[in-house]
Each structure stands twice: as C-alpha cells, then as structure tokens.
Specification:
This protein is mostly helical. The chain is 73% helix and 0% strand.
C-alpha cells in the first residue's frame, strides 16, 4: 500500500507483509498503552480533569481500533498466501489461469466476511497488486520465450523454426483473470443484496 502511494508497482505479497508488519507494530504499541504505568497515568489525568485526558484517551481507542483492523486484515489475507507465493515463484506462466477461479472465490469470501477488508478501496488495491504481479510474470515469460526462440535459430542456411509468440498466453491469462474477477464481484454483490432483503420474523409462532 505504501509502495503504491510512492509510485511503485508492488505485488500482492507486499500487501500481506504490510498488514502483518502493521499488526505486529500496533500490538506492541497497544501492550505499552495497556501497561500498569500508563493506566495509572490515565487515572491521574482523569481524576485531575486534565485537558490532556480526552486526546490521550481518544488515542488509546484509536490504537485499539487500528490494531483490530490490522489483525483482522492479516488473518483474512492469510488465505491467499499460497496462491500469491505460487504466482511470485511461477515458472510456467500459462498455468496461472487455472488458479484464478479459487483465488477470486477466496477474495469474494474475504469481502463478504471481513470486518474491515470489505471496501472498494481495499479490493481495488489488492486487484491492482495482483495485476502488477501478472504483468511482471508475463514480462519474464516473454523474455524467456524470446531467448529460447533465438537459441533455436540456426546460424546455418537451414530454415529457422517458427518463433514462439509469448504475447498470446499473456493476453489469455489476463483475460481469464478479468472475467473471473468481474463475475465473482457481481456474485458477491448479488449475495449481499439477497442478505439485505432477509428480515427477522417479528412476534411468536402462530
């Protein structure tokens, strides 16, 4: 997330590491704020009706909320760790297309059940980082295919073999990812609308 704001092109593993690191740091801060020494200071500020008490008390609550958000996001994103790791270490780019369906399904489940990672901004960031990783893997695949094609060309008069076309696989994989993403998001929205229509029955049984 920070790398995106700085103009970089991070992959989804950076998103997972960001929330894991943030959860660890905020947990450390929260433990310090909940220590006996800090609690005594807060009680003194409250008892003396100090002007420092309201902002300090608000800070403690904000740290608690941010810590809960970071822990919840890190926990839900952990379900995507295996796919993102395989994507990053991929050696056969066309095989990634088979991984998109379960991955998009997991992203929709995160969107539906996470307390905090369920906003358009969060999902847009994650999808953008997935696209960054796909672009990077497609670039590597194209470079390997071009190098392999050049190696197969004979310097003699024999006819050179037909060169590999790396772009076609990249287009197919990106198209598959886009279709599945749109389909899963639409299905998630439909499920949310159906859940919103359900209302608890008022009164007892007849």
């Amino acid at each position: 997330m920070q790398a995106l704001k700085a103009g970089g092109n991070p992959g989804p593993l950076a998103e997972m590491e960001f929330w894991r690191s943030k959860a660890t740091n905020l947990l450390s801060v929260q433990e310090q704020l909940q220590s006996d020494k800090v609690r005594k200071v807060v009680r003194v500020l409250e008892f003396t009706k100090s002007t420092y008490f309201p902002p300090f008390n608000r800070l403690i609550k904000e740290v608690g909320t941010a810590c809960a958000e970071a822990n919840d996001n890190a926990k839900h994103l952990r379900a995507l760790d295996n796919f993102f790791s395989r994507m990053h270490a991929c050696e056969s780019f066309p095989t990634l297309a088979a991984e998109f369906r379960p991955t998009m399904h997991a992203i929709v489940l995160i969107w539906k059940h996470s307390r905090f990672y369920n906003t358009p901004a969060r999902l847009a960031t994650l999808v953008r980082e997935i696209c960054n990783e796909l672009i990077d893997q497609a670039r590597k695949y194209g470079a390997r295919a071009s190098a392999h094609s050049r190696a197969l060309r004979s310097p003699a008069r024999t006819r050179a073999p037909r060169p590999v076309r790396p772009g076609r696989s990249g287009v197919q994989v990106r198209g598959c990812a886009r279709r599945l993403c749109v389909r899963r998001v639409r299905r998630g929205r439909s499920d949310r609308r159906d859940a919103a229509r359900v209302r608890p029955v008022q009164g007892g049984l007849l």
